[in-house]
Amino acid sequence: MTRMAAVLIPLAALRAAAISLTASAVCKTAVDCSLGGKCVEGRCQCYPIWQGAKCEMLAIGEASNVSTNGYRNPEGASWGGSVIRADDGSYHMFVSFISRDCGLNSWKFNSVIHHAVSANPDGPYSFKDEVLSEFAHNPTITRAPDGTYLLYHIGETLSADERSLYLRDCRKGRHAEPKRSANSGGPANFDGRIRIAFSKSLDGPWDLLNNGKPIMRPRGGEHWDTAVTNPAPLMLKNGSVFLYYRGDDRFHPDFTGKRHRKIGAFFAQSWRGPYHRIRDTPITPSGEDPVVFANSDGSGYHMIFENKFKGIVGQHAFSVDGKFWQIVEDPAYDLLASWDGGSSTKLERRERPQFLLDEHGEPLYLFNAVQGSRSRGEGRSAVQSTWTMAAPLGFRLPMASGTPPRRPEIETATE
Ligand SMILES: *[C@@H]1O[C@H](CO)[C@@H](O)[C@H](O)[C@H]1NC(C)=O
Ligand SMILES: *[C@@H]1O[C@H](CO)[C@@H](O)[C@H](O)[C@H]1NC(C)=O
């Protein structure tokens, strides 16, 4: 090889690389990488928990053995666990449980909030105690910078009379129906009362902020959020909090019977409130069950939400300031759960996303309320068929829908 040739070949290669870089550049800034990575020479270099050309998808790993994964209560149906690590290194889950042998369909008003603990982040979690009685649902645990644990949820403590009227008792077989339907009369909106229980310890005792008075009420009239539910706090380092929620139009005067579920946002200078809507309009055009976290370097915020009515199991949105959100159209994940050892299950339902965060606030595990596949004999109405699944983040797996596995490494211009 002559000296001349040795110089020419790399130059030609460089020119070819420059052309392909221009043709296939996907990003100019981190915003083009969904704030889930850095833009390096036109390509997104994703942080470990994200994958895809634009860091749009969660990189979900194989979940631990299904027989010990997450939380299953052998006594009945549970739904939507939210987990936090205690100072002593144990893991604490707050999760809805449906009382009186009823299934998930009776969540309104049979839901209570249970506390379960585990030595491992992904389980198995064991029941420890009941934290809030009927009616309490949609728990999300977080911690304020002052050390106080906050259990955001929806609920209303039912009086003895209300319990006898509105609770279903599935131990009574065909007499299980409550005397009054959950949707009739006064308490139709009990599931629209966002409250906070707080404690210095994850083992309680828990107090209700403002004696359980809702921190935010739904709006009447012509608004998009005539009902509010699914509270999702984003605690800022200075103690202020964004509180995302799902609103729907079921009490709108023109309501036709088809709900429009969208996500909105409140803000408060401190977790004690007062909470105000950041604006009159929703932050997403559809969706529910939001969960939010911040990049540990302060460069942005991420939301994962469930959007099954639009056919998306887990959807990703991101924001620089917590107020204006950009929606990623491609799904962040789907119904396929992959297990340690190589098997996988297409779940029937995968909802209520929650993250276990590390000490920097970065997600380590994705938790979902799930219902197993029908082929495994776990029918939709079976009392014990709903549970909370944990899956590690930072691994890269293909998606169920036939989407090809994405390249994990960043392609550089010289490849
Ligand atoms: C999961 O655990 C069960 C019960 O211990 C065991 O029988 C089974 O072989 C395990 N599955 C895998 C894939 O390791
Ligand atoms: C905390 O930071 C946010 C965002 O910069 C700001 O809007 C808010 O006023 C701050 N809160 C306090 C208590 O300083």
Describe the 3D structure.
Strands 5-6-7-8 form a four-stranded antiparallel β-sheet. It has a four-stranded antiparallel β-sheet with strand order 9-10-11-12. Mean pLDDT is 86; it is low at 1-21 and 399-415. The longest helix is centred in the N-terminal third of the chain and has 22 residues, at 3-24. It has helices at residues 3-24, 107-110, 160-166, and strands at 37-40, 43-46, 50-51, 57-58, 78-85, 91-98, 111-118, 126-132, 136-143, 149-155, 194-199, 207-208, 227-235, 241-248, 262-268, 276-277, 288-294, 301-307, 312-319, 326-327, 336-338, 344-346, 349-357, 363-371, 386-392. 8% of the residues lie in helices and 35% in strands. It has 415 residues and is mainly beta. The protein is globular and about 65 Å long. The chain is built from three helices and 25 strands. Pfam families: EGF_2. Residues 1-18 form the signal peptide. This is Epidermal growth factor-like domain-containing protein. Residues 27-55 form the Epidermal growth factor-like domain. Keywords: Disulfide bond, Signal.
Kindly list the characteristics that best describe this protein.
415 residues; mainly beta; four-stranded antiparallel β-sheet; 3 helices; 8% helix; disordered C terminus; EGF_extracell; Epidermal growth factor-like domain-containing protein; disulfide bond; Glyco_hydro_beta-prop_sf; signal
Short characterization:
Residues 27-55 form the Epidermal growth factor-like domain. With 415 residues, this protein is mainly beta.
